[in-house]
Amino acid sequence: MGQIALEGMEFFAFHGYYDEEQKIGNKYGVDLYIRTDLHAAGASDKLHETVNYEVLYRVVAEEMAAPARLLEHLGHRVLDRVLIEFPHVRSVKVSVSKFNPPLGGICHRARVTLTRRRNDSDTHQE
C-alpha cells in the first residue's frame, strides 16, 4: 500500500450558502490523499499501473466547477467521484478550504476534511 497526494490545488469557484457567494465566487483550496497499492507501478515504471495525477486533478476540477452550497457536499462529491473513477483506490481523504470566508471578521480559511474507505458506508469527518 502507498499514498498519492495532490496538495495545494487552487480553484476559483462559485460555492457558498448565500446566493451572493455563488454570484461573486471565491478562491478555494483542495488537498487530496489516496491510498492504493503502488507495488506494480513501483516495479514496472508504467503509468497504467498507478493512478494518473492528471486524471485525478481533472476529477477534482470538474467537481469544483459545479456549484455547491456547502463544503461538506462538495467534499462528498469528490470522494464519490474518486472512488468511481479509480476502482483500485482503497481510501480517499479530501480537505476543501474556502479562503476568506464571509464571517464578519478575519479568518484566512474555513476547511472541511472528509475520509472514506471503499465499501465503507460511513464517511468519517475530522
From TrEMBL:
Q: Which reaction does it catalyse?
A: 7,8-dihydroneopterin = 6-hydroxymethyl-7,8-dihydropterin + glycolaldehyde
Which domain of life does the UniProt lineage start with? Bacteria
Q: Extract the Gene3D superfamilies matched here.
A: 3.30.1130.10
Function description: Catalyzes the conversion of 7,8-dihydroneopterin to 6-hydroxymethyl-7,8-dihydropterin.
The record places domain Dihydroneopterin aldolase/epimerase at 4-116
Source organism per UniProt: Hymenobacter sediminicola
Sorted alphabetically, the Gene Ontology BP terms of this entry are: folic acid biosynthetic process; tetrahydrofolate biosynthetic process
The family assignment reads:
Belongs to the DHNA family.
Q: What is this protein called?
A: 7,8-dihydroneopterin aldolase
- Entry's EC annotation: 4.1.2.25
What pathway does the UniProt record associate with this protein?
Cofactor biosynthesis; tetrahydrofolate biosynthesis; 2-amino-4-hydroxy-6-hydroxymethyl-7,8-dihydropteridine diphosphate from 7,8-dihydroneopterin triphosphate: step 3/4
Q: Which GO terms describe its cellular component?
A: cytoplasm
Q: Which GO terms describe its molecular function?
A: dihydroneopterin aldolase activity
- InterPro entries referenced in this protein's UniProt entry, alphabetically: Dihydroneopterin_aldolase (IPR006156), FolB_dom (IPR006157), GTP-CH-I_C/QueF (IPR043133)
List, alphabetically, the NCBIfam families matched: folB, folB_dom
Q: Which keywords label this protein? A: Folate biosynthesis, Lyase
